[in-house]
Protein 1
Amino acid sequence: MLRRRLAIVAGPGKAADAAAQGLVAAEFRVRRLPDAEAVLSFARAAEVCVLAGAPKSAADLIPRLASVRRPRRPLRVILLDTDDGAESLPPLPDGPPLRITRFDPAREAARRLLARWPLHAGLDPGFGQRLHLLIAGTAPPAKAIALQTLRLAHYGGSGPVLTLASADPEAQRASLLADYPQVGQWCRLRFEPIEAVGLGGEPPVTAAFVCVDPPEDGLRLARSLAERTAEAGAGGAPIYLETGGACARGGIDDWDGRILPFAYLQEACRAEVLLDGRGDELARVIHDHYRDSIAAQGRDPATEAAGRPWEALDPSYRDASRQQADHLWAKLALVDCRAVPEEQVEVFAFTPLEVERLAVIEHQRWAADRWLAGWTYAPVRDNSRRHHPQLVPYEDLSEPMKDLDRYAVRLVPTLLARAGRGVLRLLLVGVPASGCPADRSLRRLTERTLERLALRYPDRSLVLASTLEDAASRLIARLALDRYDAGLFLLCPRPLASTLAAQSDAAARRDLLELVARAERRIPLAGEAELARWLSERAEIAILTGDGVAAEAPQRQVRLDPAEREPQWGFEY
C-alpha cells in the first residue's frame, strides 16, 4: 500500500481551511496546524507546506525551514494572502531546499472564473455591443474580479462600463481611484448604492457578480438584481453568486436560468491550482516561446531576467504572460473565431484587416496593464519612475511600435498550436422560432441539414443562435450540440423569465433550461426588431422550420418543412 504524501497547512483563516480541503481531495495526508511555529516539527517529512497569516511570521519561519535536513526533494512552500506584505519576505530561493511560491486565492479565483465565464459570454462584440459588468458587494473576490475585468475588458468600441455597488459608494470610489488613478483612461466606472443600483440610460448589464458578507444575504440580492436588470433590458444576463462554500440545493427544475453559484476559495484552492498551476498552461507556452526566441538570437535565456525558466521567474514576468494568455480568448471572440483541437485545423491566419483590428486591442490591453501597475506617459522611458513613451493611443505609435502589436496578434495561432490547439472561424446559423412541431420528421430533416453543413464547411466551427423559445429550435440546437460539437448562442430579445413562463409545461421548461445551461453566449437584444437585425447582420445562414417566415433573415436559408421529404435549400450547398 502506497503511503500518502504529507502536506502541512498552518495558520488561521478560511483560505487555509480551503487549501487543506483541496489537498485532502487530492489524497494528501494533511496536518492542519493553528500557527506557523508548529510547522518545524513536520517539515522533514512533508512534501507541501501551506502558510497563511501575517507575512512577518512567514519571513521569520522561512530561514528556519531552509535549515531543516530533508530528503533530496525540496519542500514546496505556498504563502497565502501575502501580497500586501511582500516587502517583509526574504529573497525567495531558486531551488533546494525550498521551493517557494506566493498565492493570492482571490486573484486566482478571479482568473479562473473569468476563464470559465468570459466577459463576452454576455454580449456580442461583433454586433457592436458594449461590455457592462456589475459587481455588487465588496467581499472577496469582488475587488479581484474588478481588477481582472479591467485587464481583460478590451473589445474595441467605446470601452467597457464597470458598475460597482456597495453600502458606501463614495468610500469605494475614493479607495479604488487612490490605488488606480488612471483607470478612467479606458473604462467608465460607476459607483452605486447596493440596494438601489441605478441602471437607467446605461448599456444593458452583460453580467453581474454578487459578493456580499455574509454570503447568505447574496441570494436575496441576486434575485433583486435579476429583476432590476431585466427591467433595464438585460433579462438574460447571468448573475454569478458567491456562496461562501454553501452548496446549491435543488435541481434544474428549480433554476431561474440566470443565477449561477460559485465558491471562490474552492475554485482557487484545488490542489491542481495550488501545486500544478492549472490555468497557467497557455501562459507557460507564451513564456517558453519567448525563451526560444531569445535562444534563436544566439543569447542564453537564463542570463536575462525575463528569460529564466518559469519556476524561477519573477512574479511580474509571470503575470505579464498570464495576462497575455487570459486575453487571447477575447481576441478570438472579437473576430468570430474559437480554439479547437489542433487536428481539426489544417492552416489558419488572420486577415490583414483582422490583424490591424486586433493590434489596436492588444495595445489597449498592454497599456491598461501598465496603467494598473502605476506607469504613466513620458517621452523618455524611466523604469524607476515607471515612465513609458508608448502609453499613447495606437494611432500615435510609430510603425515599428505598431509592428510589435501586429506581431503579437499574428503569433496567436502559433502559440495555440504549441498548446495543441488550432483556430477555426465560426459559422453562425440562426434558428428563428416557429410553431413547427418537433416531431420525427423535423428530426430527420435536421440531421440531414446538419450533416450537409458539416460537409460543406469543414473549416468552420458551427454555432447555432436562437431564442430557444419553441420546441423546434430546441430540437435543432440539441442535435447540433450533441452530434456536431456545435456552440450555442442564446438570443435574448425579452426577459428569460418571460420565455420560461411561456412554456407549455414542466417538461418544455426543463428542456429550455438544460439548453440555457449549455449556451456559451447570452446576447441581449432590445425586442423583436433588434432580433431581426441580429439575424440579418450576424447569421450567415438561417434554418427556417415549417412555414414560418423570418423577417430580415440572411439570404442563405434552408427550410425544414415536415410536410416535405428533404430540406429545401435556398442556396448552393
Protein 2
Amino acid sequence: MPIRLLPPNLVNQIAAGEVVERPASAVKELIENSVDAGATRIDLTLNDGGKSLIVVVDNGCGMTSRDLAVAVDRHATSKLPTDDLLDIGFLGFRGEALPALGSVSRLSLTSRTADADSAWHMMVNAGTRQGPVPAPHPRGTRVEVRDLFYATPARLKFLKAAATELTYVIDVVERLAMAHPEIAFSVTADGKSRLNLPVAHTQGDLFDTHLERLTAILGKEFGANAVPVTAERESLRLYGYIGLPTLNRGNAQAQYLFVNGRPVRDRMLQGAVRAAYQDVLASNRHPYVVLFLEVPRTEVDVNVHPAKAEVRFRDAGVVRGMMIGAIRHTLAESGHRASSSVATAALGAFRPGQLPGRPFAVSSPRAMGAAQAYDFYAPQDQQQGLAETPNLFTPQPSAPSVAAEQTPSAEYPLGVARAQVHETYIVAQTPDGIVIVDQHAAHERLLYERMKQSLGDGGVKRQLLLIPEIVELDEARAARLLARAEEMAGLGLVIESFGSGAVAVREVPALLGESDVASILRDLADELAEWDEGMSLQDRLADVCGTLACHSAIRAGRRLNANEMNALLRQMEVTPNSGQCNHGRPTYVELKLADIERLFGRR
C-alpha cells in the first residue's frame, strides 16, 4: 500500500487517544491551562461523570480573538517562548489538549482579557470550527466540553460508570489543588457541590499554607499527625508533610508527589518513599506522604509521557538519596511520637454501660471478687518475690530511671509507671492523662534501633566464605553489580568479576547467616536496573535485625518491676521511631484525661 499523510482531524483523534484518556484527563489539561493563566479561582462543573458535560471557568488572563483562533490548532502554545524543551516553566506546553478535545467532542471557548471591550467565543464540533465572534463574558476563560468522545463512540465503551469517572476527576482536582493553595477550587457534579476549597488564609510560611490545604483535602486526622519535611542538596529542594508510621493505609493512594508544582506518579520517587519507611512500616502498609520537589528545569525532563504524568531526572540517584535521607531524618526526629488516630480508635472501642446482670457496686461482694480476679499487678506487688529477676533494661545516662511514687511531670512525656496489666501492658500516668505501653513491641523497637546503630558505628561485620560462591548472570546484570561493588562492600558483600557474566562472592554480611547468596545478587541486579540503587541487601539486613530484635525482646507475659517499667519508658522517650514497632504498629496509646472524663460523662 502507498504511504499517505493522514487527514488533520484523524491526526487530532489519534492525539486525543494519548492525551484525553477519560474525562479526568480532559479536566487535568483544562485546569492546568487555567493555572498557567494565573487564575486565582477555578470552578469545575460536570454532568454524568464528565461524559456529557465538562465546564471549566477561571478568572485568569484570558485570550484575544487571535489567540482563541490559534489555540485550537495542533501544537500551538504560548508556553515555550524560547522553543527549549529543557526549559519548561508551565504545566501545559504541548498544545495538544484543545485541538484533541475539539476533534472528539463539542468544544466551545469563551475568553476575555482584562483590557478588552468584550469577550470572544469560538466553537469546534468534531473538528469543524465556528468563530471567533464577540460574546459577553467577564475577565477570564470558560471552556465547555459536551458529549466527550461522541465523534469516536468506540472510546465510550471503555469508560467506567459515571460515579467512578467522577472519583478520577476529583482526584485530579485535589492533586492540583494541593500544589496551589493560593488558588480556590470548586467542583459541582450533577447539580451538587462535591468539592469546595477556598484560598488558604493561614498566616505563616509556605508550610502553614500548604498544611491548611492538605488538611482540607486529606482530613483533620492527617493535619494532626503530619510532620514537616525539608531538605536541600546542591540545587535541589524538598519540602512537604509526611504522616507518622502509625497513620497508614492498605494502598499507596495517599502518596502525592510533585515536581516543580506538577503532580507526578513516578516509580523512582515512590520507591524512595518505600525505602525510607521500610523499617518502620510493614511491607503491605503505606504511609501518607505529600512531598514537593523543586529541581532546576534543565535537570528534569517532563516531556517523556503524553499526559506529562512521569518525569526523568538527570541525576536520579541524588534525588532519591535526598528523599530517603530527609524522610528518615524526619521520622527519627519525631522520636517516640505516635499518631493520635491510635488514641481515637481506642476511645471509640469503649462502650459506656453496665456489667451484665446488675449495676456494678463496690459494696457488692460479688463485684469485689470480680475486680480482684483481674490480672492486675501494681509495681509494689511485683517488688516482692522478684528480687532474683534480672533487670531487663540498663538505663542510659540520657534516660534516667524514675521512682514509681514520683509525681508525673512534663519532663517525662510517657509518664511514670503505675501498674502492669495482664503481664503485657504497662500503665503509666502523665500530667494530663495515661499511657498504655505494649512492653514487647516497645522493647523490640529499642533493640532494633540499637542493632541499626551498631551496624552504622562499626560497619557491617563480614563473614569470609571458605569457598567463594560463583553466581552466573547475564553480562548486563553482572556489569551493574560490579559497577556498585564498592558500595556493596560497605554493606558487607564483597564481590569481584569472574569472567563474562559471572560474579564471585568472597564475603557476605555475618547477619545473613546461611542465606541464598545467588538469590540476593539476582535481586540486587534487578533492583539496580529498576531503581538504580540496590535495596535487597539493606532489606535483608533489616529483616534479620528485626527478627533478632523480636526474638530478643521481652515477651508478653513477663512480669516487670517498677524500675524495669520506668527504664523502658525513659528509653522510649530518647529512641527514634519508638512510637511504633518494626511493623508500623503502635507501641503505646495515650489517653488524655479530658477524653476519659467524657467517657464517664464528667464533661
Protein 3
Amino acid sequence: MNAQNQPKGAASPSTGEGRGGGQPGAQKDRLYLFDTTLRDGQQTQGVDFSAEDKGRIARALDAIGIDHIEGGWPGANPTDSDFFRAPPALRQARFTAFGMTKRAGRSAANDEVLAEVVNAGTPSVCLVGKTHDFHVTTALGITLEENLANISDSVAHLVGLGREALFDCEHFFDGWKANPDYAMKCAVAAAEAGARWVVLCDTNGGTLPEEIHEITARICAEIGGERTGIHTHNDTELAVANSFAGVEAGARQIQGTLNGLGERCGNANLCSIIPTLVLKPRYAERFETGVSAETLPRLREASLMLDEILNRAPDRHAPYFGAAAFAHKAGLHASAIAKDPTTYEHVPPEAVGNQRIVPMSNQAGRSNLVSRLAEAGIEADPKDDRLGALLATVKEREDQGFAYDTAGASFEILARETLGILPQFFTVERFRVSVERRHNAIGEEITVSEAVVVVNVDGERMISASESLDPVTRADQGPVSALSRALGKDLGKYQSFTDDIELVDFKVRIAGRGVDAVTRVSIDFADGKGREWSTVGVSPNIVDASFQALEDGIVWKLIRDGAPLAGE
C-alpha cells in the first residue's frame, strides 16, 4: 500500500498500536470506522439536519474516536453547502465530502459537479460510482468501458490533488451476482487509480451474511483487505451481521450510522457494531479501533443526543444503550443477577455508560436509585423508607408521560422534594399567557404572545411581564419565550444567579392518544459556567408543561450555585 494514501494518524495494519481493547502486547489489525450519519442518515424519512445539528453530531463522533466523518454532498443543498463552508474543528476524525464520479464525455478536471465536491477542501473524498452492469447501461446510459474510465479518472484526479480517495461501489453485491467479472473490474479500477479504500455497498440491503463473506473475500484477495471497506443496509435486519461478515472476510473498514439511521430500513448501526468490537474478545483481541474503553460510553451519549435532535423517543430496547438493555424482571432473574450479573448480561452495563435495572425488585430498584442520587450529589441510605416513596412517585409520573432518562435536573428536583431536602427559594403564585394576532406599525400581520408571572420572594410579591418579540430583531419567538423572560425578569436577590441562563433547545412530544393524550415538554439549558442541564414538564396544556420545565431549570441552577434560601 502506498504510504501517501495512508489515513493521517493511522497505524499500519499489524502494528498493535492504537487505543482499542484486547490483550496487551498482542499484534492486532487496525479496523477503521467511517460514519455516514450526516449524509446517509439524512436520507431517513422525516430527518432534516440543520448545519448546526451536523456540527454538533460531528463533534460528538470525533470525541468518540471515529476515523472518518462524512459530512454530506457539497453543493447538493443549501444546508450541506453552509456546513462545508464552516466545517467543525475535528481533533481526530478525517472530515470527508461525498460526491459522484465524473460524467462521461468530460474530464475529471472539468466536471463541475465533481469540482464542487473537490472545492470543499476536505482531506478525504468519497465518490460513489456504479458497479452493477445493469445500472451502468440503463441508468447512466453509457458503456461499461466508459464507466470504468469514469471511476479510474475520478479517483486518479483526487489522488493527484493530494486527497485521500474512497470509492463507494454502489449496488456492488447485486452487481457481482449479475456479472462478477465486471464488478471486480470496477473495484480494481478504483484501487489501481490510487483509492485508499474501495467500499463494497449492499445498497438494497438484501444480501445474506454468507454471500457477503464469500464475495468480500474475493475482493480482499484481489486488492487487499486493508483497502477494502464494507457498507451494508438493513432491509433484512442483517446490516450489523453483514458488517461483521465483511470483517471476517478481510475488510478493514466498516461504514455505518448512529442508531442505524438511513433510507428505507436504515444502515448498519454503529451503536451496535462499535461496542461489540471493543468489548467482545473475538474482536477486541484481534483488532484495534479509534474507540477506547474510556471513550465508549460517549457513544451512548451521542446516540441519545441524536434522538433529542430528531425529537424522537430513544429505543428503550436498543442493544447496549437502550434504557431497558440491562433491565431484569424480579424472581429468578433478580436472584441470579444478585449472585452473578454475568448470568443474564453479556457485558457490564457500566462499560457502555448504561445501568442495570430490576424494575420489579424494590431492593434492586433502591440500589440503582441510590447510585443515581449520588450522581446528583444527594447522599441517601438504601434503607431509607422514603426511597420507596420516591420509586413509586417516579413510576407513577412516568406513567403520566414524564421521562427522566434525559431530564436529570427534573429528576433531581423531584428526588429532593420527595426526600424533604428541596431548598425553598421562591414561590409562583400564578402566571398567564395571552396570544394576539395584529398588525404592526408597518402594516404587517404578526402574532405576539404576552406573559405575566407573579412570584413571591421573601414575602415580597413581584409581578413581571414580557412579550415574545425579540428585543433586537422584533421577530416573534413564541409564548414559551415570553414566559421564560417573564419568569426570569425579576427574581429579586436571585436575579444575579439567573441572568446567565440560556435556553438551548425546546422540544414537544405528545404522549398517549385521544382524550388521554398529554404534552411533554423538554428544555435544555446552559449557563455562563459552561454547564448544561435538562428538564421535563407534562400537562394537557403545552404552556403549563413548559412552565414546569422552566421552573425546574431555574431551581436547579439556584441549587447548583448555592443561592441563599428564602428568608436568608
